[in-house]
Amino acid sequence: MAIYHLHVKVIGRASGSSAVASAAYRAASRLRDDRLDRPHDFTAKRGVAHSEVMLPEGAPAEWGDRESLWNAVEAVELRKDAQLAREVEFALSCEMIEAQGIALARDFMQAEFVDRGMVADLNVHWGRSENGLLKPHAHVMLTMREIEGDGVGRKVRDWNRTALVERGRECWAGLANARLAELDIDARIDHRSLEDQGIALEPETQIGAPAQRISSEGNAVDRAEMHSEIARNNGARIIANPAQALEAITHQQSTFTGRDMARFAHRHSDSVERFHAVTSAIRNAPDLVNLGQDRHGEDRVMTRAMIETERRLHNAAHLMAKQDRHGVREDHRKAAMARRRAWPGVVWRASRRAGPCNRRS
């Protein structure tokens, strides 16, 4: 099932980071760091399906080479605590094939960042997680300064605004959902919080790989413990009322498979025993209806509530199709005619609202 994940952070020297080293790691490449006078070699890293530097209009052509780009950024930043780049990490839908995911990531970068004047160093990773599930995602490093002539200019503070981040989160959901619909993939993502979606489950904290490794070795890691507690509590809620899980899943797709249910149960379990209990609760929910096998040979199910929703939509579409025109109330018609008579020189046109990736703020 499609999962919404988009995380933004700043890469800076205060945490001991190097822009060149960060770029080399994400691209699984070997880059020479002029400031540190040594190379960073991550060519043994696997899973990078696509790697590209996307340049805005007017950017020096040599910045298409990431070694030149990030060494230029490092050279202009003199402070020990300098902010070097902004990173956007976001999940891609595992229902898409690799080429479709790459195309979607490129379109998002172009519309939301490159067209604004940022250089985007895009790397799409198409690998699997430790539990064997496909986990496609993208890492993007963005420049924080404007282009000035053939070099780096001043920092653009507006690019760091919270409002722009929130706009980007909304834009990603809108663009991804539109592409999923175009590809006839029954899955959707939602950038809103679980609370705003009306889902009675607690949002989980993010745990990086180092924290997971330390936790597995038996050391106390507050963040890992918090994640386990949230997963444990959510699992208990689902076991007591599996309708909460079905509501969350159908927010993203109208039909789903046993594998989708297992993925959802895995995110809301803190042990193997709890995983099996949560999975069993979801599979045995009375609201589930078996639809048979899909074209991939997987058993697909649907909820009775979603069947009723689709029935109402079908009936409404059928009634609208039989009508030559849509009815307009008499008072609305008279008000429109009165406005037309009051402003005879105005041509009235229906306005089309721009999509989230096309608005400028």
Instruction: Return the structural class.
Output: alpha+beta
Number of helices: 11
Largest sheet: 5 strands, antiparallel
Which radius of gyration do the C-alpha atoms yield?
A: 25 Å
Fraction of helical residues = 25-40%
Number of strands: 12
Calculate the mean pLDDT score and round it.
Answer: 82
Strand content is 15-25%
Outline the structure in words.
This protein is α+β, with helices and mostly antiparallel strands. 40% of the residues lie in helices and 20% in strands. The protein is built from eleven helices and twelve strands. The protein has helices spanning 19-27, 66-76, 98-112, 162-182, 209-216, 222-240, 243-250, 258-267, 272-283, 304-321, 330-342; strands at residues 6-12, 30-33, 38-41, 48-54, 83-91, 120-128, 134-142, 145-148, 151-155, 255-257, 288-293, 299-303. The chain has a five-stranded antiparallel β-sheet, sandwiched between helices. A three-stranded antiparallel β-sheet has the order 10-12-11. Helix 6 runs parallel beside helix 9. The longest helix is centred in the middle third of the chain and has 21 residues, at 162-182. The protein is globular. It starts with 5 loop residues before the first strand and ends in a 19-residue tail after the last helix. Residues 205-220 and 346-355 have low confidence and may be disordered.
Supply the key terms.
5-stranded antiparallel β-sheet; alpha+beta; 11 helices; 361 residues; 12 strands; 40% helix
